[in-house]
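Our working data are protein records whose layout never changes between entries. Getting from the letters to the tokens is the skill we practise here. To make this concrete, we reproduce a full record directly below:
***
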Amino acid sequence: MASYYEKNKEHGMKYLRELVPEPFKAFAQFDRKVFKPGALTKKEKEILAVAIAHATKCPYCIDVHTKKAKRAGASLEELVEAVFVVSAMEAGVAANSNEMRDNGFSQGYTDFSHSVLEAGHLSRAYKELIAAAVAFAIQCPGLADRHMKNSMELGITNEQLDEAISVASALKAGSAYAHLLQVLDSYME
């Protein structure tokens, strides 16, 4: 069965880079700058990237950043916890739109969200940072504001928050870039 998400698609990426070399070069420079260690370590940025790749639904990004996170020292438990934060944020969008009704959903979501954000293999502050970055990626201002405030109350700095949002920005761009393979496949049919 053919799939757009085959891991061996490098030939297509090379062809796309040849079509418009300057935008691809600019993206690569942007991506390198975002993932350079700063207020957040390489490991922290890669864990964020794995989480945000789940929010952007990009299998290529999930694959690449999972491997990079592992090389940077992330454990499988840390990655799973980060993705559960994404799950809570995705559910949070629906929870925020469902607040007007008292049908039990709200309490179920609250319990789930609190459980996900508790410290485990990742600290509560870092999970709140992930939640804020994911909220930006899924474009939910209410969740972004809430989790930015929560993360800062737990000691996350403005610099760390800026870098986390930069990772979200790079993953949003990278997801669109990676999905150009679908354009190539469809155009060539």
